[in-house]
């Protein structure tokens, strides 16, 4: 519980933590930001890292010349692209092996038909999914992994991976650069971060709950015996 509270406190006051780190460790902040963005986008076990907040706050610090804007943008774009690529390659490598396993009892938990549907979906809509997922916490961590599992082609994946990384990093860092130091925004940054996270996650959660609550079609109404 203490660890969770510390993490929530870090997310809500990321600007203060980052400012202290810059003053104490200087240029090492670039390595830290690179590592956080890379891990959030590259490792499915770390979807909770505050990527959006860090991009925005990094831009705000670049506006006060505490960080170099060009270097920051370059490193974060590289981190976002390589992170997604590693995630995709992991999914591509282990996905077919998991779904083709002959371990007794595991078959009931694996839906090969669902995997095939996912593959077909990514072939038709995977590009939009990879780009839009960048702006949805948690989803952006799993999207490249699922793309790899569904065997989306590398060329198609990388095209939208690079486009999504550029759009995501440039938009959020530059928003922070131009607006992050406005007194009102700086004062209520923690509220803005929460609203932004909620606006991204809540629709996804609602959609998931809706799908869980929906009854399967079942192929129509079952007739009574003898009818």
TrEMBL record:
The chain crosses the membrane at residues 27-49, 69-90, 159-179, 191-213. It comes from the Bacteria. It is found in: Cell membrane. Coiled coil: none annotated. InterPro entries: DedA, DedA-like, VTT_dom. Keywords: Cell membrane, Membrane, Transmembrane, Transmembrane helix. Residues 49-176 form the VTT domain. One of its GO terms (cellular component) is plasma membrane. Pfam families: VTT_dom. It is a multi-pass membrane protein. Belongs to the DedA family. This is DedA family protein. It comes from Paraburkholderia acidisoli.
């Amino acid at each position: 519980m203490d660890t969770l509270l510390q993490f929530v406190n870090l997310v809500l006051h990321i600007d203060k933590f980052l400012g202290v780190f810059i003053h104490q460790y200087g240029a090492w902040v670039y390595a830290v930001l690179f590592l956080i963005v890379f891990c959030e986008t590259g490792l499915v076990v770390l979807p909770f890292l505050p990527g959006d907040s860090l991009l925005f706050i990094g831009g705000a610090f670049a506006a006060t010349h505490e960080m170099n804007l060009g270097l920051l943008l370059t490193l974060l774009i590289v981190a976002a692209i390589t992170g997604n690529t590693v995630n995709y390659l992991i999914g591509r490598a282990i996905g077919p092996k998991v779904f083709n396993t002959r371990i007794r009892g595991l078959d009931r938990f694996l839906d090969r038909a669902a995997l095939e549907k996912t593959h077909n979906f990514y072939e038709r809509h995977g590009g939009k999914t990879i780009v839009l997922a960048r702006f949805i916490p948690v989803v952006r961590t799993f999207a490249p992994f699922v793309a790899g599992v569904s065997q989306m082609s590398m060329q198609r994946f990388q095209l939208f991976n690079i486009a999504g990384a550029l759009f995501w990093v440039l938009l959020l860092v530059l928003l922070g650069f131009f607006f992050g130091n406005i007194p009102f925004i700086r004062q209520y940054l923690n509220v803005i971060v929460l609203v932004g996270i909620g606006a991204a996650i809540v629709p996804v959660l609602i959609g998931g709950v809706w799908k869980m609550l929906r009854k399967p079609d079942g192929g129509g109404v079952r007739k009574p015996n003898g009818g």
